[in-house]
Design a protein that fits this description.
By secondary structure, the chain is α/β, with parallel strands linked by helices. Helix content is 45%, strand content 18%. It has one domain (4-235). Helix 3 packs across helix 5 (149-167). The radius of gyration is 20 Å and the shape is flat. The protein starts with a strand and ends with a helix.
């Protein structure tokens, strides 16, 4: 949960400018890291022969992984999206191209006629490239759009596949942590039920202004989205992980 901090309206513009600069740098670095790590995230590592591929080699654990994916897929499609679906094997090939989408969520605020879509400058959803993403899903939910199977199904399958891979890759999690990004598994019950998302959170702190300010700004601008802010004052207090670990060893 992002902390809430009281700020003055006249400070918002400069804080937004500073946040964009920090977020752009973080995003650029993270995209570079993720591109380098792509070879470690091949979906075939977890799905093996249960996914279309040029390789016919069997992968240890693929049968169990597919069963886990299929069980969660059916429950998410049914309970979260009201869609009945079955999976046939092999699954359509998932291209090993990773994507990063800002972590987003919706919330109703006093004075607004519809929920506001929030995003954060220091958290991203890691996934396999897909034409549909979390921002699109939340926007459709807010707009009351009918869930379309041809969009939702590949989105859910890809989210479940990267979840399985990350859960079974502690070394990959340690690498990302060493680069300054905590790996966590998150859900958005009101949006997609118990569909798990792999979320990468920077050590850089962020906060959300008080609801009354967010609501006022949204009414004035007529916008339906709001991005949280980087806690510039908190940058000085950011931990240096290696230093803390070394001091801990010596203590």
């Amino acid at each position: 949960m992002t902390p809430v901090r009281e700020i003055q309206f006249e400070d918002l513009s400069s804080l937004r400018d500073q946040s964009k600069k920090v977020s752009s740098l973080l995003s650029e670095d993270l995209h570079g890291y993720v591109k380098t790590l792509t070879t470690l995230c091949a979906p075939r590592k977890v799905l093996g022969e249960y996914m279309q591929s040029a390789s016919r080699d069997k992968v240890i654990g693929a049968e169990k992984n597919f069963s886990l994916l299929e069980e969660r897929y059916k429950s998410v499609m049914r309970d979260a999206f009201g869609l009945s679906a079955k999976l046939s094997t092999p699954l359509s090939a998932i291209h090993n191209k990773l994507s990063l989408t800002p972590w987003s969520y919706s919330q109703e605020l006093s004075g607004l006629s519809s929920p506001l879509l929030f995003s954060t400058p220091v958290r991203w959803v890691l996934g396999y490239d897909c034409s549909y993403d979390l921002v699109g899903l939340i926007s459709d939910r807010i707009g009351g759009q009918e869930m379309r199977y041809e969009e939702v199904s590949p989105f859910v399958i890809r989210a479940l596949t990267i979840w399985l891979l990350i859960e079974q890759s502690p070394d990959l999690q340690r690498i990302l942590s060493g680069l300054g990004y905590e790996v966590s598994i998150e859900t958005l019950p009101d949006v997609s039920g118990d569909l798990p998302y792999v979320v990468l959170t920077s050590v850089v702190p962020a906060f959300r202004p008080q609801d009354s300010l967010v609501s006022m700004v949204s009414q004035l601008s007529g916008g339906s989205t709001f991005e949280e802010l980087v806690d510039i004052d908190g940058l000085e207090g950011m931990p240096f992980d290696l230093k803390e670990r070394l001091l801990g060893v010596l203590a």
